[in-house]
Amino acid sequence: MGLLLSFFVVIVLVLLAFGGVEAANLQYLFGIIIPYAAFVTFIVGIFYRVVKWGRSPVPFRIPTTAGQEKSLPWIKQNKIDNPSSALGVIVRMAFEVLLFRSLFRNTKTELREGPSLAYGSAKWLWLAGLAFHWTFFIIVLRHLRLFTEPILFFVPLIESLDAFFQMGVPLLYITDVVFLMAVTYLFFRRVLIPQVRYISLAADYFPLFLILGIGVSGVLMRYFFKVDVVGAKELTMGLVTFNPVVPEGIGVIFYIHLFLVSTLLIYFPFSKLMHMAGVFLSPTRNLANNNRERMHINPWNYPVKVHTYEEYEEEFRHFMKDAGIPVEKEE
Amino acid sequence: MAVQPKVPKGISYPDELSKVDYKPPEKAWMDTPVVLKPNMFCWGNKEKSLKAVDFPNARAWSVADEDWKLPENWKEIFLEGIRERLDKYRTFRLFMDICVRCGACADKCHFFIGGGDPKNMPVLRAELLRSVYRKYFTGSGKALGKLAGARELNIGVLKELWYYAYQCTECRRCSLFCPYGIDTAEVTIIARELLNLLGLNIEWIAGPVANCWRTGNHMGLLPHTLRDTVEMFKADLETITGVKVDYSFNRKGAEILFVNPSGEYFDPNGNITFMGYMLLFHELGLDVTLSTYCSEGGNFGFFTSNEMAKRLHSKVYAEAKRLKVKWILGGECGHMWRVWHQYHNTWFGPVDFLEEPVSPITGTKFENAKSNKVVHICEFTSDLIKHGKIKLDPSRNDNYIVTLHDSCNVSRGMGFFEEPRYIIKNVCNNFYEMPPNTIRENTFCCGSGSGVNASENMELRLRGALPRANALKYVREKFGVNTLANICQIDRAALQTLADYWVPGVAIRGVHELVGNALIMRGEKERTTDLRGEPLLGKEGGENV
Ligand code: HEM
Ligand code: SF4
Ligand code: SF4
Do the bridges between strand B391-392 and strand B374-376 make them parallel or antiparallel, or are there none, so unpaired? Predict the structure, then answer.
């Protein structure tokens, strides 16, 4: 249900943009108003969510320790997977965010006759996840060409590296291919692995279709239905310089692409995509494992009712005395 | 001769039980109401156990009954409980929000691996609560309902939450693999707190908590019983080693307070570990005291609520203060060390009435424990060995072909891997590791942690133990391993039954039992048996060689 519905919602979004621009001439709405609204929602929304998370304190220092702790001096600590210092935490987080360290641990459990359990290597999710995120990131960086004048110095550099194979006209970007393949893989694994399918919600299919839609419309625009790039840049520069203009005849596919991106920006803060910000805040990863060495403060720590020694001795004094165990009070 | 498996009553044979189908059913999980399967859950708490610690809704109830006798406004209480905890725990709020359902954690849980129930996939275990969170605390859940993965809280959902909160051993294996570190153990901890607001605990946890509150230990051992028990150990040790060991309870002015899990006084397997400590302390002439008031290092309060955990453990520092010791040494126990390591300092710090721990034997400063002043016995002992301060004869453990089970709590809540290994390698001649995917940070739970080591849920425990047992079987077949060493009292009490079923012929042993066997003591007679009274290799038949 979630799958089909998500698919149709994305189709409807495409049709909306198509109809809006082709039939109703709503270029201004789809090219200017919605993108602005989306951008504001994105920024404000993320800010709101992060502040909301940040308001809940971290009462306990509970890192998941994934290697040898700091112990006696002659025992080798695993300073990255079980950091005891701020630097160690930074390195651990960098590994998580840039390389998906934890996902790299992934294994696949198999139960064979015997019974005998085997834990096979399962790096595909890690690889596809990494490929998806990195290409997404590089593609976003490449888009800065549209939003800066003069174009930021590193953008052409990325572009030339990305078009390394020098194939096709216009030059084929490696990231485009890898990106589409990775998203497709993520989709198929979600549908084909029974357990993953079982846990999947509409909220899992929708971003995949949406992102796939963005990718496909982008690729179509670049390689197939050529749009007026000069016009597109005029529009995007207009947006960033707060001088919005709608040049004539950019091509409807551009507006579809832009509308899907706007939808993603609006959807982002209210969805699981917030994992982007969340991963940085995760207490099982971003805390040093030095609890016995340094006191971690819980802002809401409060005194609790305890059973005191005096109460204990009061109840058991005669047993203690009989057993020759020292007591505080004789009677 | 192959040893036959010991099959507990009402349980099918291993070859039957190990047929697990991982394929989830056709029907969506939200449309599949929970079935409370016998042998998979623990009995509900008794009225008196909750009363003893002033917990709400203390009443007689039974899990099998339709009516769980909840307060009129149970839903409000539960939802208000969620609200409060969202504001108190960043973990909770974040973990409710950021799961992408990638499924990386799904086949990492021993209960899913051994049972195949899809709701035992960590992600789904968390979704059980997350779906309620969405319904009442998120806009999309309120507006879109089921489509957004949200569902109404009703009695069926509550029962489901209860059932699966006590089918999680809080082992954190899932959290190791999650790209965002989502820790389903933390979600379970909070789910159990919420359930306890309604008086929905299990007796296997609530009973020990009530005991611990009153008598200082889970077993409910009174001061004289504790003394008599240790006196008995002393007599046994004299028979075996010829040495009269000293010990003391509640002795003021001792340098060190030693606190251990009380199961070691009670459980025959744990007893011997305790005897190992006694020999070691005596041989070192350590100025150490036990306490009857603080006769429990473990903390079943931790399986109830964070507040209850703190209530039970305040006695550790209170007693250290009263006895005016310098620092605290802790015995072999898993969840005890998770709590001591990750929570104590925050609850009770700053611990400025004790001194930074220094080994009186080697002079080593335990830098990593300088703030909360508690040292793990394995840190202490491995330091002794490193400095050559004790004499060891590993051949006295030659009967044993040993592997080490890393307990979840000290593994993923501390990172305690080399210390026990270093000790074992010095006290035993035969040590083999289980496969890398099943040890250290990847270790598998015994299947009985977090207070679910009862007998009425034996099928659950056996299923949960399958991955551990399977790795054990591997080294048994390959290297002839016959001993599973560990540093956890729940392991010692629980794993024997599970090993007897899955891998018959393997004995469960505490690390300090092996230390006690190997320790050469001043004035000892020639040992012919180990601490269990079983003949040493080459000393069978009892004749003096
Ligand atoms: C710091 C930045 C980010 C990090 C560290 C990160 C990390 C991850 C990881 C580890 C996964 C699980 C593996 C996978 O399914 O690929 C994941 C999933 C996902 N991420 Fe990100 N991510 C980040 C930012 C983003 C952004 C900006 C987007 C898109 C707008 C995004 C979209 C997704 C989607 C759609 C999935 C789910 C894929 C599926 O359904 O299987 N992520 N992310
Ligand atoms: S590994 Fe983490 S993000 Fe993935 S399904 Fe499990 S809890 Fe969710
Ligand atoms: S903490 Fe352990 S028992 Fe609980 S869900 Fe995670 S893997 Fe399973």
Answer: unpaired
Helices (H), A1-85: 2-22, 27-28, 34-55
DSSP-assigned letters across all residues of B288-312: EEB-STT-----GGGGT-HHHHHHH
**CATH node for A2-300:** 1.20.950.20
Substitution target from A103, A190, A198 for chain B, most B beta carbons within 10 A: A198
The ligand 3 atom at the shortest distance from the C-alpha of residue B121 is 5
Q: Which ligand is nearest to the CA of A209?
A: 1
The 10s digit of each residue's pLDDT in B122-163 is 999 999 999 999 999 999 999 999 999 999 999 999 999 999
- Could you report the per-residue pLDDT of B19-73, keeping only the tens digit for each? 999 999 999 999 999 999 999 999 999 999 999 999 999 999 999 999 999 999 9
The SS3 call for residue A177 is helix
Supply the pLDDT for residue B1.
44
> Domain map of chain B by residue range?
25-201, 207-518
B125 lines ligand 3 (CB under 6 A): yes
pLDDT at A311: 97
Using a 10 angstrom Cβ sphere, with 0-12 exposed, 13-18 middle and 19 or more buried, the burial of residue B144 is: middle
The reply to whether ligand 2 has any atom less than 6 angstroms from the CB of B187 is no
Please say whether the beta carbons of A163 and A172 come within 8 A: yes
- Cβ within 8 Å, pair A295-B350: yes
* Minimum-distance ligand 1 atom for the alpha carbon of A268: 30
Residues B451-493 have pLDDT tens digits of 999 999 999 999 999 999 999 999 999 999 999 999 999 999 9
Encoding tokens for residue A292?
């016995």
Position in ligand 1 atom list of the atom nearest CA A132: 16
Q: List A residues 305-324 in contact with B (Cβ-Cβ < 8 A).
A: 305-309, 312-313, 315-316, 319-320, 322-324
Report chain B residues whose CB lies below 8 A from the CB of A298.
346-347
Query: Closest Cα to residue A292, out of B63, B294, B328?
Result: B328
Is B98 in Cβ contact with A68 (below 8 Å)? Answer: no
Convert B322-353 to b/e letters by CB count within 10 Å (16 or more is b). Answer: bbebbbbbbbbbbbbbbbbbbbbbbbbbebee
Ligand 2 pocket member B361 (CB < 6 A): no
Tell me the ligand closest to A127's alpha carbon: 1
User: Which residues of chain A have a CB within 8 Å of the CB of B470?
Assistant: 115-117
For residues B7 and B302, what is the distance between their CA atoms, to the nearest angstrom?
31
At B226-250, the pLDDT tens digits run 999 999 999 999 999 999 999 999 9
Ligand 3 neighbourhood includes B129 CB (under 6 angstroms): no
ipTM score of the complex?
A: 0.95
Write the pLDDT tens digit of every residue in B180-231. 999 999 999 999 999 999 999 999 999 999 999 999 999 999 999 999 999 9
Q: Tokens representing A102?
A: 């934890």
- Give the containing element (helix H, strand E) for B379: helix B377-386
Q: Is A122 left (phi over 0), alpha (psi -120 to 50) or beta?
A: beta
Contacts of A67 (CB under 8 A, 6+ apart): A77, A78, A80, A81, A82, B415, B417, B440, B441
Task: Write out pLDDT tens, residues B259-293.
Answer: 999 999 999 999 999 999 999 999 999 999 999 99
Range list for CATH 1.20.950.20 in chain A: 2-300
Cβ contacts (< 8 Å) between A326 and chain B: which residues? 249-252
pLDDT band for B545, please (50, 70, 90 cuts). very low
What the block records as the tokens of B197 is: 């607001």
- Residue among A102, A307, A325 whose CB faces B292 most closely: A325
Cβ <8 Å between A304 and B106: no
Q: Which of A1, A307, A325 sits opposite B223 (nearest CB)?
A: A325
Q: Ligand 2: which atom is nearest the Cα of residue A103?
A: 1
- In the predicted structure, residue B544 carries a pLDDT above the cut 80: no
